[in-house]
Design brief:
The complex is a heterodimer of chains A (1074) and B (461).
Chain A (H helix, E strand, L loop, with lengths): L1 H6 L1 E2 L3 H5 L2 H4 L8 H9 L3 H13 L1 H8 L6 H7 L3 H18 L25 E9 L2 E10 L2 E7 L12 H10 L8 E3 L2 E3 L1 H17 L5 E5 L5 H13 L4 E4 L7 H10 L3 E5 L6 E5 L10 H10 L24 E6 L4 H5 L2 E4 L2 H16 L19 H13 L4 E5 L5 H13 L7 E5 L8 H13 L5 E5 L3 H4 L6 H5 L12 E6 L11 E4 L8 E4 L5 E4 L12 H6 L9 H12 L5 H11 L32 E6 L13 H4 L8 E2 L4 E3 L1 H6 L4 E3 L8 E11 L2 E9 L7 E5 L29 E4 L4 E12 L14 E3 H6 L31 E6 L8 H9 L7 H5 L8 E6 L21 E6 L8 H5 L5 E3 L5 E3 L9 H5 L6 E2 L10 H6 L12 E2 L5 H13 L12 H5 L5 E5 L6 H6 L4 E2 L11 E4 L1 E3 L3 H5 L1
Parallel strand pairs in A: 1-2, 7-8, 7-15, 10-11, 10-13, 11-12, 15-16, 16-17, 20-26, 22-25, 29-40, 30-39
Antiparallel strand pairs in A: 2-3, 3-4, 5-6, 5-17, 9-14, 18-19, 20-27, 21-28, 22-26, 23-24, 24-25, 24-28, 30-37, 31-32, 33-34, 35-36, 38-39
Helix pairs in contact in A: 9-27, 12-17, 15-16, 15-17
Chain B lengths: L10 H6 L9 H13 L5 H27 L14 H12 L1 H12 L6 H24 L26 H34 L3 H10 L7 H34 L11 H27 L8 H32 L2 H12 L3 H13 L7 H4 L2 H28 L14 H24 L5 H15 L1
Helix pairs in contact in B: 2-17, 3-16, 4-6, 4-10, 4-15, 5-6, 5-9, 5-10, 6-7, 6-10, 6-16, 7-8, 7-9, 9-10, 10-11, 10-15, 11-12, 12-13, 13-15
The chains are: A alpha/beta (1074), B mainly alpha (461).
């Protein structure tokens, strides 16, 4: 992250204005309309206008007018305004309007370019710290800004939930800011209204509400970790004592919350110290790929997977293997996740069997340790898992205090309670995990909260409903039928809820049924705060003034209070001032903004006494093997649907399935054979694009959905995953009508798991084309991805080079052309396959950094997606290479899964360069394989001759040149390519060059780590390392010197600068034998 | 060979199938050939045929126009299959363009008299095929308006083409071949143009043919210079016949793609080119002699000889296939071995089997004397070989690209409407040009036929 440090973190220029003396020494007397009127009363003609000018210069007046809702104005209007007064006020407003720009300009963000802000050099990007609130987490970010336009998201190295890395959502969130389909203004029944009109309406509602003490006033939000927002809601609840606050987060279960309550009697938050754990068991938890803190956990996990060089074993001496502290991960899960793919041992179980498994584990773990009384409770584990369980239990018991059990977000409370118990029994509490108070400002059972709200609406108890940043019409369980709760009934000619106000970034399914819709500001446009997974208080700092007439949740809530004009900025400052009183608040404030977080604000561990025994759980319901089990999971790309209109995420191949633009009902290969489901490779695009798959009707819970079926190796038999977040009806141009809507068959009594007989699935007889970027998962015996076990590695540290004949000979003498020497820098990259978990952050980071276009489903199906870095997913030990769906291949039941990021390999002896007829791809003196877009005529010969197929061609004009918003998004340092030219990974040459300029200015060589490629910066596991391979002390040179380092398709003698470090798994020897 | 059939090269056979029908004099030869152009009324069939061909050519124009508006994305190509129909068709057309020069130049040098009656239209066919071929490399680029970058010209930036790339060699090879073929054809036409000038009645025809005849008067000096020039050009064109397809094969052989990277490609491509070229000559000659009653000039002897050349080159091609397989398996290179498996069992296996059927198995029928002398069979056979040779290029270009080194990048290819439109369009253009050719120029060399008459009468005497 040196690159950012170079520029230092800046606070947003906007707040500097706020620090002007007149702000600090604000005059005591506050101007109101009466004063203005008095001032203007006697003046006519020139004098009148002069007074206006004086007024305009008066900061008090400025404040009065800026405050779009002037103090006492309502009372003014109440008293009746005479025409003359009104016109004078109008004149004053107009006069001031000319001075201040337009009415929506927030007072904090005016940057006068005539006075160049401190540290800002035009053409040089600046980085500001902020956070992206996401569920019960906030991801710390440094956002790159070019002349006031945020263009690229980077992780904040000082923030615990980022540690410098990001995830795909955070990377793609900048596209949400510039989404041309965003709602842009306030609307009332679809008609455009001004914010002032909304404020009037809100104040009217507030007045009514005030009169009734808040009866019937309800607020519905998602999970909120922001202390100031929560305080604001609390103050409303205090003001209107009978008002209520409901919460609904569709993609996160109540299990973690209720499990903690079950185990400890209160809502506690669990924080893991993954790095300290030698053995980790994940029970259906994707803690490396999603959920609060996953970036942090992935980083800590990968630290324990980095391997040193080993001495060559001496066959004559006794084998003394060096001690390598590599952790071991067991995963029990119904459907393959990023975490499952990284696991050393993975056991596919039905979601409902996971709890059974945990009970059996609890019994095994406890009966030999602290509580002999529990020895009696022998719980039979799910069939076939006994051996696995025994080995696991033994391993956990051998590592007491150094192991960790993690439960999944979608699992029920009972499993979470069991896991708390198991962790306590194994002595892990305080070592590999700790408990803190809840990160959520107001933890409640979301399902019950929403149920209460729906019941109250039906009972006619709700008059006003504020929905902040949620889309319940789309996400609520279908038995709640939320749409009828809020919509106008043409038969009865009335609505159940009198006032419905919706705040959301898009005019979505909920918005169209509400009275008022307020366009929500993006987090890059607002001030705010949020807590990270460990409680760290983080500050949301805006990077840009709102692009449209959008407003934040804080502003909307304020409209219903007696301080309707209060700014987010003031709320935040006041909140921080109150929470962290210090003598020099200004210094604290600046430091907080600079860091993006309040230093040392992470929650302290709390000690929690376990009030739970597994015996207290009701008898488990045995899952019937004949029945299918439908489970709901958030989609890895569009999450709960909130990213549906984000083209980058839609086109991002999902980590395991490699599907884009659609979700599909995921079915295990065996079950697919049973259900006679098949797929077929399309003729155009084929394995690298278009797969036709059977369409099925799923009738569940009195509802029906039609979905494309997708066979997924490694999925538990009988389990069918219905990914949430697709099938949006009103998401915008990109996201509407993509995939199927799994919410349609999701009911409140079966939010996550629905057992059903196989007859609920009916083949419709249709086929549906899915855009899958990698259908072929077999390495065909080629050494594409070198893998081994820790034991193999110890015995043969050079295992990655087995099968390489004459390794030293495949060098210079085999090339026709003369050798080049690279005396200066020799840029290179090393990718540690042992660390990569396929999370996709690098793919989106690359897309964002390098202005890579989105091509759409049709073009992906033709095999023309443009990602410069792709993540290949391979299954090992797969016997049957074919995809013949009619016969079941047992090796697909649970194949070991590996990921391999493939950017341009930057070959020294590049096959592409030799065949280009015009010299459009040439070698730089530092070994980069450069693309000269101007020179390229587009013969595509280079791509044909590229053995790695990393080149991407602009078959059509893929780039959007018209949409003005997207112009703001682009990185000005990277050429926007037109049609007909080839493009590919450049090792972020623009970053290399800016690093070089910086170094040359200081007359020194470029330091290691000073230049960070976009993929490397985003990587949560630090799997990608870039640097100068000529410098033996550089990280990349040291990695390349490792025994595990190998070259992809080394036998071709292309001599790539990108090399890979073989993946090493650490299996339990007991299970290996079995 | 069945019993009772005379030995292949026996005098009986020569007698049975002469290179020119009996009873022709200088005058009748001239009359018969020039009448097609000058006096015979244009038949309705010509107009219908021309209209069909021209409408296909129009389709090509539309397809290319749309291509320039939208980009090569309208075709079925993708990553990993960067080259599709365009390159397949290019290689196919270039291959077809081999027969003409081979017949006129090499057979001329080898003193094969039977070439005389077919060389003119074979050369024309060569030119038209090269024209069709030349369209593809230009339009298949992403930015055809920048294709001049491939030409060596002194640019102000000091940039030259990248001479290590076989595509640049292609530019030179194809353009040289096109130029020399055109010159050779035109030089051969000069005496005939003079004949047409002299025999035409209409004034404009007289002027145009007169200008094209370059003042030919038929003097001994003219004939002397003409024959030296023709001989020299034949000598110049001969190596080109071999070099063009060798260089075209380098496009593939130089690349590292399994299925392309093969040293056997140059001879195998040249043989394949001659194979398809002779097939195309037959495809054109058979309807031509029928339509204009030229059975006496293009005799069974010609057809028989061309069938033999086809058989011979077909066997060379079969040898190439065999050794391509053998070398792949013998090398032990896993990618090459995999390629062989893919050709036999992969998703495109039917194309490979169709190719074997068309190019190797079916032409074995030509061993039979009877079938060689059956015009209908020969015509069908020539079509089959043309299809087979097109499939060969499809198998080499496309199928090799579908599954190369990294399995994650494997894909498939299927042509779009625009691929077909462009391909059929170039066929339309080819046929259009042929129709125009037979209408305005003598399809058979009058001068050489007269020579032949002289020689055959001498023989008789």
């Amino acid at each position: 992250m040196k690159r950012m440090n170079e520029h230092e973190h800046h606070e947003h220029p906007g707040h500097e204005h706020a620090e002007q003396p007149h702000e600090v020494t604000r005059p005591e007397g506050v101007l109101d309309l009466a004063d203005v009127r008095a001032k203007l009363q006697s003046k006519t003609g020139k004098q009148y206008w002069r007074s206006l000018e004086e007024l305009a210069e008066d900061p008090r007046f400025e404040e009065l007018l800026h405050n779009e809702f002037p103090r006492q104005a309502p009372s003014e209007w109440d008293e009746g305004v005479d025409r003359r007064d009104f016109l004078r006020l109008m004149a004053a407003s107009l006069a001031f309007a000319g001075l201040s720009g337009c009415g929506r300009t927030p007072e904090q963000t005016i940057i006068p370019y005539v006075k160049q802000p401190d540290g800002m050099v035009l053409g040089k990007p600046q980085f500001y710290a902020t956070v992206m609130p996401f569920g019960a987490d906030a991801i710390g970010l440094l956002v790159e800004s070019h002349e006031g336009r945020p263009t690229k998201i980077e992780g904040n190295p000082e923030h615990p939930s980022s540690l410098g890395a990001t995830n795909a959502f955070a990377q793609a969130s900048v596209l949400n800011l510039y989404d041309p389909d965003r709602a842009q203004t306030v609307t009332n029944y679809g008609e455009i209204r001004t914010w002032a009109q909304f404020l009037d309406a809100a104040q009217a509602i507030a007045a009514e509400t005030n009169a009734t003490n808040g009866v019937g006033f309800r607020i519905l939000t998602g999970t909120i970790t922001s202390p100031t927002l929560a305080a604001q809601i609390q103050s409303i609840l205090t003001r209107y004592p009978k008002a209520q606050w409901h919460q609904w987060e569709p993609a996160v279960g109540d299990g973690p919350r209720e499990g903690a309550k079950l185990a400890f009697g209160s809502y506690l938050n669990t924080v893991y110290r993954v790095e300290k754990a030698d053995v980790i068991l994940s029970l259906d938890s994707d803690f490396l790929g999603s959920g609060p803190g996953h970036i942090h956990y992935a980083r800590e996990f990968s630290r324990r997977r980095k391997l040193p060089n080993l001495p060559k074993p001496n066959p004559l001496a006794d084998q003394v293997f060096p001690e390598i502290k590599m952790n071991r991960l067991y995963v029990v899960e119904p459907t393959p996740s990023v975490t499952g793919a990284t696991a050393d041992h993975r056991l596919p179980l039905r979601a409902s069997e996971v709890e059974l498994f945990a009970r059996a584990l609890a019994a095994r773990v406890t009966d030999v340790t602290v509580r002999p009384d529990s020895a009696a409770e022998h719980v039979a584990p799910p069939a076939g898992s006994e051996k696995w369980l025994d080995a696991l239990a033994k391993d956990l018991l051998q590592n007491q205090g150094k192991c960790l059990v993690v439960a999944g977000e979608q699992q029920p409370a009972s499993l979470h309670a069991l896991v708390h118990e198991i962790n306590a029994t194994l002595g892990n509490v305080g070592t590999t995990l700790y408990y803190t108070q809840s990160v959520e400002a107001h933890p409640v059972n979301h399902l019950e909260s929403l149920r209460d709200l729906c019941a109250d609406i039906d009972a006619g108890k709700v008059d006003t409903l504020l929905m902040l940043g949620v889309n319940p019409v789309y996400t609520a369980p279908h038995d709640f039928d939320f749409a009828t709760k809020i919509k106008y009934d043409p038969v009865t000619k009335q609505k159940k809820v009198k006032n419905t106000i919706h705040l959301s970034p898009h005019f979505d399914e909920t918005s169209e049924l509400c009275d008022w819709h307020v366009a929500e500001s993006h987090y890059l446009e607002t001030w705010g705060d949020a807590r990270a997974f460990d409680g760290t208080l983080s500050v949301i700092q805006p990077l840009i003034a709102p692009l449209y007439r959008t407003h934040s949740a804080r502003e909307l809530l304020a409209a219903f209070t007696d301080k309707p004009g209060i700014s987010d900025y003031d709320v935040l400052r006041d909140g921080l001032k109150a929470a962290y009183p210090s003598a020099d608040f200004e210094k604290f404030w600046r430091k907080t903004l600079n860091d993006g977080l309040v230093a040392g604000s992470a929650f302290a561990p709390v000690s929690a006494a376990l009030k739970f025994t597994p015996a207290s759980l009701p008898a488990p319901k045995p899952a019937s093997a004949d029945e299918l089990e439908f489970i709901f999971r958030p989609d890895p790309c569009v999450y709960d649907g909130r990213f549906a209109n984000n083209g980058w995420l839609q086109e991002l191949p999902k980590p395991v399935t490699k599907l884009t633009w659609d979700n599909a009902a995921l079915i295990s290969p065996k079950t697919a054979v049973k259900l006679e489901l098949a797929d077929e490779v399309g003729a155009r695009g084929g394995e690298h694009g278009k797969i036709f798959t059977n369409v099925i009707d799923i009738s569940l819970s009195n509802s029906k959905v039609t979905a494309a079926a997708w066979r997924l190796p490694g999925q538990a038999d009988g389990v069918i995953v219905l990914p949430l977040g697709y099938g949006r009806k009103k998401a915008g141009y990109t996201g509407t009508n993509k995939g199927f809507n799994a919410y349609v068959v999701r009911t409140s009594n079966a939010l996550w798991t629905v057992p059903a007989p196989a007859t609920v699935i009916k083949k419709t007889g249709d086929d549906y084309p899915l855009a899958c970027t990698q259908y072929h998962f077999n390495m065909e015996g080629r050494q594409i991805l070198a893998t081994g076990t820790l034991e193999e590695f110890k015995k043969n540290p050079d295992f990655a080079h087995d099968g390489e004949k004459d390794r030293d000979k495949t060098k210079q003498e085999l090339s026709l052309y003369k050798e080049f020497s690279y005396p200066g820098y020799a840029w290179g990259m090393a990718i540690d396959l042992n660390s990569c978990n396929g999370c996709n952050a690098c793919v989106v980071a690359c897309q964002s950094e390098n202005n890579i276009p989105v091509v759409g489903k049709d073009q992906v199906m033709r095999g023309r997606e443009m990602h410069w870095i792709r993540i290949d997913r391979y299954y090992e030990k797969v016997e049957n290479a074919t995809h013949d769906a009619s016969s079941y291949d047992p090796s697909l039941a649970n194949p070991p899964t590996f990921f391999q990021p493939v950017p341009c390999q930057q070959c020294e002896n590049a096959p592409c360069e030799q065949v280009c007829p015009v010299g459009a791809t040439v070698h730089s003196a530092e070994g980069l394989n450069d693309m000269v877009y101007n020179r390229c005529v587009g013969t595509r010969y280079c791509s044909n001759n590229c053995p790695y197929k990393v080149r991407r061609f602009n078959f059509l004009r893929f780039q959007d040149w018209e949409t003005p918003q997207l112009k703001l998004l682009r990185n000005p340092e990277v050429t926007v390519r037109s049609r007909g030219v080839m493009e590919k990974c450049t090792y972020c040459v623009q970053r290399i060059n800016s690093g070089r300029i910086e170094a040359e200015k200081q007359n020194r060589p470029i330091r290691d780590g000073e230049i960070v490629t976009a993929c490397e910066a985003a990587c949560p596991t630090q799997a990608i390392v870039f640097g100068n391979a000529n410098d033996p002390s550089s990280r990349v040179a040291q990695l390349k010197a490792q025994q595990r380092n190998y070259t992809l398709l080394g036998e071709l003698n292309a001599r790539p600068r990108t090399t890979y470090l073989a993946a090493v798994r650490n299996p339990n020897s007991e299970l290996e034998k079995a | 060979m069945s019993a009772g059939q005379p030995p292949l090269d026996s005098p009986e056979i020569r007698r049975l199938s002469p290179v020119i029908g009996p009873g022709y004099t200088y005058g009748s030869v001239t009359e018969k050939i020039s009448s097609i152009v000058l006096t015979r009324p244009t038949s309705l069939g010509w107009f219908i045929g021309f209209a069909i061909a021209f409408s296909f050519m129009g389709l090509m124009t539309i397809a290319i126009g749309w291509l320039i508006i939208k980009g090569v994305g309208i075709w079925g190509i993708n990553i990993p299959i960067g080259w599709g129909f365009a390159i397949v068709n290019f290689v196919w057309w270039i291959g077809i363009g081999h027969a003409g020069t081979l017949i006129s130049a090499i057979l001329f040098l080898l003193n094969q008299k039977w070439r005389t009656s077919i060389n003119r239209f074979a050369e024309a066919m060569t030119l038209f095929a090269v024209a069709c071929a030349g369209i593809f490399p230009l339009i298949h680029t992403g930015r055809p308006w920048m294709a001049f970058y491939m030409m060596p010209y002194p640019s102000t930036m000091g940039l030259w083409p990248q001479f290590r790339s076989p595509l640049i060699w292609d530019v030179f090879a194809v353009s040289t071949y096109g130029t020399v073929s055109l010159l050779f054809w035109f030089v051969g036409l000069i005496p005939d143009l003079a004949t047409l000038r002299d025999r035409s009645i209409q004034k404009p025809a007289k002027i145009i043919y007169g200008m094209l005849a370059l003042g030919w008067r038929g003097s001994a000096r003219h004939w002397h210079r003409y024959q030296s020039a023709y001989l020299l050009l034949a000598g110049l064109a001969t190596p080109l016949v071999l070099s063009v397809h060798t260089v075209v094969s380098f496009d593939f052989a130089i690349a590292i793609v399994p299925g392309w990277h093969t040293t056997i490609f140059p001879p195998y491509f040249v043989a394949g080119a001659i194979y398809s070229g002779f097939a195309m000559v037959l495809t054109i000659a058979i309807p031509l002699r029928k339509a204009y009653g030229l059975e006496d000039f293009i005799t069974m002897r010609h057809l028989d000889n061309m069938a033999k050349v086809m058989l011979a080159t077909g066997l060379i091609v079969a040898y190439g296939y065999f050794f391509e397989f053998f070398m792949s398996l013998y090398s032990g290179n896993k990618f090459d071995v995999f390629l062989v498996q893919q050709r036999l069992h992969g998703p495109y296996a039917p194309y490979y089997y169709a190719l074997i059927l068309c190019n190797i198995l079916t032409p074995q029928l030509l061993w039979s004397y009877k079938l060689r002398h059956n015009v209908a069979v020969l015509f069908l056979m020539s079509i089959v070989v043309n299809i087979g040779m097109w499939l060969e290029r499809f198998v080499i270009v496309v199928i090799s690209l579908t599954r190369d080194f990294v399995p994650s990048a494997w894909g498939r290819y299927s042509p779009t409407f625009w691929d077909w439109a462009t391909f059929l369009g170039t066929m339309g253009m080819f046929v259009t040009l042929l129709f125009l050719f037979v209408r305005v120029l003598p399809a058979i060399s009058i001068a050489e036929m007269r020579e032949l008459v002289a020689e055959t009468t001498e023989e008789k005497q």
